[in-house]
Amino acid sequence: MGKKLVMAQKRGETRALCLGAAMVVGAAIAYYILCTTLLPLYEKSVWTEESMCHLIDTNIRDQEELEGKKVAQYPCLWVNVSAAGRWAMLYHTEDTRDQNQQCSYIPGSLDNYQKARADVEKVRDNFHEARVFFCFSTTQENETSVLYRRLYGPQTLLFSLLWPTSLLTGGLLMIAMVKINRSLSILAAQK
To answer: pLDDT per residue over 14-39, tens digit each?
Structure first.
């Protein structure tokens, strides 16, 4: 009976060690992926200064009003603000600015024009209610655009690193508990 118990305990310890090692390896892979994808975007972001934006004007544009560029037909919200003492165009995120520099907000669902239009009108009404809100600007003097929300800010980076860190901590704790259990078993057997 004692030999079967020791063998079962040894198999359980081996499985726990393998699980702990797999968690550590998984955390290392996750850190590598995050450091090669998210970290460069965070470092490249120039939108670091938090400012107060004062709403100047909003306008909803349709495709035919978009300054001669051929874009898919969707309603486009255009927002002018005063930020850091200068006039600027507000963009929802960095991606919005990259998709279409003439739109401050692009609706998420472009399948149904009426729903997209209602979404844009709701966002416009929210801006008119707030009138003054926080935004992110850059330190460059000639930049005439600001962001409403940063996609690659410090909160995103910390939240993304939280899961690999907890995985690494759990794996290391599991390995440490197995090692402590083994050493305590050896000490108890020697007495």
So the answer is: 899 999 999 999 999 999 999 899 88
7-11 long-range Cβ contacts below 8 angstroms, 24+ apart: 9/185
Tokens of 44: 């490249």
Smallest Cα–Cα separation from 77: which of 131, 18, 34, 119?
119
List pLDDT tens digits, range 74-101. Answer: 788 888 888 777 888 888 888 888 887 8
Site of tokens 């001669």: 68
Q: Please state, in angstroms and rounded to a whole number, the distance separating the CA atoms of residues 133 and 147.
A: 11
User: What is the bridge-based pairing of β-strands 132-137 and 49-61?
Assistant: antiparallel
3-state secondary structure (DSSP) of residue 145: strand
Residue 96 backbone dihedrals phi, psi, to 5 degrees: -60, -40
The H-or-E segment that residue 130 falls in is helix 113-130
Is the distance from CB of 58 to CB of 78 less than 8 angstroms? yes
